[in-house]
Amino acid sequence: MNAIEARGVGVRIGAATILDGIDLAVAPGTLLGLLGPNGAGKTTLLEVMAGLRRADRGGVRLGDQALAWLDPMERARRIGYLEQGAVCHWPLSVERTVSLGRLPHRGAWGGTSSADAPAIEAAMVACDVAHLRRRDVTTLSGGERARVLFARCLAGHPEALLADEPVAGLDPAHQIRCLELLAARAAAGVAVVVVMHDLALALRFCDRICLLSAGRVAAIATPAELLSGDVIETVYGIELARHSRGGRPYAMPWSLRERNLP
User: Fold this and answer.
1) Where does the ABC transporter domain start and stop, copy by copy (predicted)?
2) Model confidence over 237-255: pLDDT tens digits?
């Protein structure tokens, strides 16, 4: 059974079709990269899968249940959502901010459980923010704040983790660390969907990639399968420099295709 699945999802905003009949199933234990040019519909699809935006057509299932039928608190327990460029408005400590990821797990009276403190500590250590625990989150750099919000998401131990551009603004070492953490969550049985623009990192870390183009699925395949053809180059209008290391193929954008040059 798939952990999370979009079926025939369509979204319109005004006269514009943002998503057009998207089918996407993500099994437990999979790290799936959601890629595509600007305006392809990646963030919109992630919002629909998180239950934050209603589809005009189709719907999303979480396990064997329709997402729309779930109680909001249950949905928050089962789905972790990391928003792109999220802002911290309140002057909370880092530790308190990360602890907010445990709120959906608290009972009717809001009490803490024995699982909360270890989950919060483990998430802070994993995201390299434990040393910042007493800092006001509004005083942090953009990259530090991004890691704190990622830790908040991890602390909730969701069965599906949806992250929108989690490596944006991070230095190379923390980009790799972030993707290694997402891969580790997938290896532990979580269904992970991550929106990315960095092709090289996506091809390096993701188990499967869903490539969107103009609101439709252009391809869903493993990195090796994608690199065996030219769909990436066609969708982006670029030429790739292709390589392999340890028998694993990877690539990086190298140049625009001639037709895209001014």
Assistant:
1) 4-239
2) 999 999 999 888 889 999 9
